[in-house]
Structures are given as C-alpha cells and as structure tokens.
Fold this protein.
Amino acid sequence: MTSTSPPAMEPPECPVCLQSYDGDSAIPRVLGCGHSACETCLAHLHLLRPLTLPDTLRCPSCTQLVKFPHAQGPTALPKNIDLLRFSLLLQEQDPNSKPLKENANIPLLNVNSSPRHRFPPRIWSEELYAAWKDWILPDGAVSTEDGLVTTTGRIRISSTFMNLSLPSAIMRCHLVENQVVGLVKIGQFELNDQLLEYSYMGKIMSIVSQMNVDKRNEISSLLRISLRNSRVCNVLGLWLDMENDGSLYLVTQKMNNGLLNLESSGYGIDQDNADWGSLMGTIGVELCEALIRLHLEGFVCGCWGLSCVFFDEFGHVCVDIGEALVIGRKFRECFVEEGKGGRVITGSEAQVLIQKMLNMGAFVSPEVWMELLGRENFEVEKNDVSYTVSYGSDVWLLACVLIILLIGNKFLLEMYNYLTTVFQGKNEELSGYKIMYLQWVETVNAMLEPSLGSDYSSVHEVLLKCLAFDPSTRPLVTDVWKCIKGLKLYHSINHVSVNSQSMTENVGQCLVLGELCNMSNDVRNETRFSEKHDDCKLNLSLEGKITVDNVVDGVSAGKIQCKVLQGHLDSITGLCVGGGYLFSSSFDKTINVWSLQDFMHVHTFRGHEHRVMALVFVNQEKPLCISADRGGGIYAWEINETLAQKPLKKWYEEKDWRYSGIHALAVSECGCLYTGSGDRLIKAWLLRDHTLLCSMEGHKSVVSTLALCNGVLYSGSWDGTVRLWCLHDHSPLAVFGEDVPGTMSSVLSLFADQNMVIAGHENGCMKIWMNDVLKISIKILNGAIFSLDMNGKSLFLGGLNQTVKVQEIAGAESEMNVIEVGSIACDSVITAILCVQGVLFVGCANKLIKVYHCGA
C-alpha cells in the first residue's frame, strides 16, 4: 500500500504583483483594513490615487478606502512579521518555489456585478446607445410651423459613425438656425406602457433597438456618406415628433434650387443660350462625381429623378439622399398597392405602374424592374447574373437625366410608349424584349442627333452605351466623367480621384431595393406618403456592424405592472427587504411587514413613541429589523415565524437642544449599527450588547443619509457634503462637495456600490463620484430628491415632483453619462425607493407603497 503526500503549500503572494513575500524586494505591509501587499505595489498604487484624496489608498484585496501615510510612504506602515516569517519558511522547504518577478505590471481593479433581473426592461444595449447618441437631435430642434420644416437652433453633431480609416474624427454636421430641412419617417414609438412614460431619448432608442441589423447598416452607410462627401447632401440626425404621433424622422439637408427649376415651362436646357454647353458639361461632370462617391461607399441608387439633383449655395451639383429615399419608396409603393411582386403582371397593371413612375419624374433601370416585378415577367432565370443590379444601374439613370436635360419632355413620352409596349406585348422570350428595347434606343438616338450634333459625338456615343440593356456592358461612371470632362466648353472644377477597379469588384447595395424603401416592413401605414413625411424603418451601427439583441430581459414578460400596498396611516419613510419580507416604516409610528411572495400584509410592529424615520434589516444568526425614530429611540425586532409584538431590544440616544432624532441607519457586516442624527453626529453601536462604540464628528448639520460599501461608511448631510469614514477605526477619510462653496444644497439621499457614489440633493441635483472623483453633476428634478436606488445600471430617483425618474448610467469611467430612460407618475411626493431583484418598491407621502414589476 502506497501513501500519497499532501500537496506542498505555496508561499503567500502579493495580491497585485503575485510575488512571494520576502525580506528584500517584496516586504509585506499591513493596511488599515487588515490586508497586506508588498511595499513596491503600494507605492505604485499610491501614485494612481485621486488628487482630491492624497492621504488615502484603496486596498487591492477588498477595494476598501484606507488611510495611507503620504509623506512617509509604505515604509511607515507596519510590517507583517508573521506573514513574512511564514512565507520564508515555505520557500526554504520548497526549492522549486516561484521566482520573484521584477517590474511586475499592476493591473487595474474592476469588479463587475450584474442584477439577476432588470427593471425597467432594458430595450437597448449600451453599445447601441453609444453608436447613436451623437446623432440624436434635441427635442424642439425642428419646427414644422407655417408648412415649412425648419431647424430652431444650431446643433453640433459629432462624427461617431465615421469610418476608423479616416485621418481624424473631428468632422461635424451642423443645423443652422432657420435652415429648411427634409424629413423622412423612419419609425414610430409603439411601446405605450401606461405606467412607464419613456423620455425623448428613451423613445428614440426603443425605436432603434427594435430594428434589424441590415437597416442599421444601411443608415450608417448613409451617415458616413453625408459626412465625407461634398456632392451628397448632409444627413443631420434623428428627431422625434413628440407633439404629434411620436414618429421618428431622419432629418436631411434640403435645397430648393434643383434641376427641375432650370426651365419653368418644363424639362430641358435652353439650347439657344450660348452657355448651354458649359452648363451641360458642369452638370454632367459633377453629377458623375456624386455617383462616383456613392459607389465608393458601396451604394447603388437604382431609381431616382431630376428632383434628387440640386445645386448647392456655391452652384455645384449635389445628390439629395432624402429625396432619393422618397422616390424609391413611392416607386415601391406602387407594387404594394397593386400586389405585383413575384407574379406575371397584366398590361393594364403595367400601364398604371408606368404612369405613376413618370408622374413622379422617376427613372428605373431595367434590371431593377426585373428584381421588383420578378424575372418571370421577362423570362429571365433567377440565377442569371447578367442582369444583376450593380453600379451599372446608376449609369443608366445618369444617362436618362442628361438626355432629358438635352431633349426635354419628349424623352419621357418615348419611355412611356416603350414600357407600355413591353408589358402589353405577348413576347415569351427575353430576346423579344431586347428587340423592342433596341428600337427604343434608336428612337432616342434620333432625338439626340439634332441636340448634340457632330461637336459632341463622343458624348452622344457614351450616352447610348449607357442605355445598354445588359448592365455589364455599360461604361463605368468614371468613363462618362472623363468623356464629358473633355468638352471644350466645360469650365474647370475640382478634380476627383477615383479607383475604377474598386467599383467593379462589388455590385453595391441598392437603395431602392434596400430596407429603407421596403414597404412590406411597415404594417401601420404602407401606402400613405407625402413629400416630407415617409415611412420606413431604421437601424444603425458603429462602423456599420453591431449586433444587438432585440429581445432583452423583461420585454418578453410583458408590460410593467403595479400593485398598491395599503396599510399605513401616514407618509412612508423607509423600505428594506430581508428574510422573505418587505419592511416599511411610516410617520404613523409603525413598521409594516409584507410578504415578498404575494405582497400581502403579514404583521405590524408597534411600540415607537415618535415618528419612525429609518429602518434596516440585519442578516445574522438571529435576523433583525432595526428601526429608529425622531425621538432617538432604536428598536430591534426579531424576524422569525411568529413575529413578536414587542421589540427584542430598545435603547435611546442622548439628546441635546439641537437634537431632532435619528434620520438614517446603516449596518456593517462586522456587527456595527450606525445612526445619523440631528445632532450632526454619526454613532457606531455594537449589536451584540447595544453599547455605543464611538461618535464620528465632522458634519455641520443634520446627518440625513448613510450608505456602506467596501469597508467605507458614506454619510450625507444637510450641510451639502458627503463624508467618508473608515470602518476599521472610524477615522475620517475624505469629504466630497466641500470644495464648492456657495453652491451647496442639502444631501438627502445616497447610494454606494463598488467605487461609485451617487448623492441626491435638495435642489434636485444629482452628483456621481467614481473612484473618489466627481464625474457627473446634473439637475434631474425640479425639487428635492428624497430617495434614490440603483439596480444594475438602472438608477431610480424620486422626490417632490411626484414621479420616479428612471435613468441609466452608461459609458466607461472616462466617458460616463446619464441617459434619461423615462418616468413613472406616482401622484404623490416620493419618500422612499428600493429596487431588488427586478422589483421596484416606491413609498409615497400619501401612505401608499407601489410595487412595480414586469408582469406576464
């Protein structure tokens, strides 16, 4: 029988650099919390401390904020002799012990905790918000009065969605005051919960979060185009119409001087004008440049008209993306009305389609017709790639625009006659359609000859090539650009640098066939449009590719539900949970006990002689609910199956003329109860014998709220400051808010979790400190914030304004910001808030407790 020896013990290590302790390079030093770390690491950690707290340090083991001798350094801390002796003993016994590491890197500590459930249901991800937030225009940025859509302010929007390959990320779009803009409807808010009223930002993000990735990618591409290309109108951002039906719009730049205004009596350029050739050359070249830039971004229009082309303030030709979406949608609308997709159409149906298309001044390439009507209408196999929608489709549109400018309305008439003949014909093979198409091209050729003549034979030739039936045989846009640029009458403009090879390798994303123009996705209003308000859906992603789950925790469970708990006779002052119960205190001098299973009233603790101001649950071998009143009485109630009528123990604080009772309670894991009182003191009581351990003095007014986290006691006061106290020796550590004289407002509520501290003030302001540095100071309410709580990243605040404000903390520490998700109306002043395991408890001044949760 063989015996196995137990595994050898490893020497104790520094929790930061993982070196085994020794008496030379890794000397263990004891911090105030009782943990140890080596001298070198403590010195490095002290260099990373907040400048506002020079004499403190966060323990690398428990993250507790402890005192640190700034002047003397870590050598002034006591050496852990026992730990060092034990470590050296083990190293002597183990010759293969781990060698020491020199210049070990010090990792940043980051402890994450996530809630088991989420309230309210989170309907968008933090990544999606980060990608969209800089494109959301403020409420009221757009005005629709007097029949015009204009901006009411100058808004700067950052280039969040610029491709990372750009040399810099400092480009901006601007809304200029009284600028006329276009609106394209891209969604509508539909999460009409009767309890949770989503904010402006929340409604926009809820719309965005429910849209698929393809649409987000399409819109992100449009945003990149508008930022980087001068030949494409700007997409200014997203705006929600809060006053009407809650529709979300894509706001685009709008110009009134379009090509349709070249001749008031109709289409075409006046060729009697001596400068007509120069104007034609300028329009042609710059229109080619606009298409080249669209193609370089991977976009194919597939359908557009003269209304999509306009002149900017400098007289250069630009493409209106918003108008292109309107044209594409109206064209797709025709198929929704007639139900054409995927079946052979009749001649009368085709005539209606063609008439509608020409009435809106739209041109549609033959291959787009095939995709929309179904290739069976043209006897083309579905796997035939010869007629795929590609960059060549826009070459066909380019030729149509230039030809109609040359020969006028008669070009549209010939197109109408040709298309009508095609769809009314009885041809059964594609060759028959090609023959009719060639006949139509010959007719166009005959009409072009008088307009262009021999001086522009090269332009004449390239325009006819652009009208080829097979898109693969059409010239590139760059070839058309080079041809028109060679005109003698063309005046010099800026040159563009293009890569023809890059555009031939990809067929591109067709706008008219994309998600933004897909009418079948909008079940609310499929066929009603106007020139300014059009229906579509939208999704967006950073760099075009972010996958976001559309169904998140709580959404599948249904809308938010509310249960009202009645039992108190006066205002609610405190809430806590423990032992399967909800405990509520009130000015009526009682503590009610409610079951967390069905929220039914279970018991009432009576005995206080004054208003109960605070309560806390103590989870120990004998669970307790401890309550404190305005007269200084502290009552401990035993929590068991019987729930006794009398307190297990009661004791009182001493009073003086300044005294206004106990306002706050907190309990530590080591068995200390802390009371914040009207005499400006914080008192520590030993729960095992209810004796006063010490009093902490420093505040200049009533201590109104207490919070405990990571071995630090946080106290808020009417003096407007938050003080930090070490739980190890109850010594003061730091003061928040003392460096802002003249602007202090009473601290009425506190929340502490990990390295974050949140304070609610009497003036409605909320302040957030992260790692002891003030990160956010923002006014949330128009009155006092009496209570606040946080669950995961959801923050709940309530006070005088009778609503629960639901916020979300987003972003990393360096870019932390607060998102207003929405609000819950409570019809009374809110005095207590508690969120536990996806259930929100709200105590009100009207004696009621409201329980909010996501119901089935």
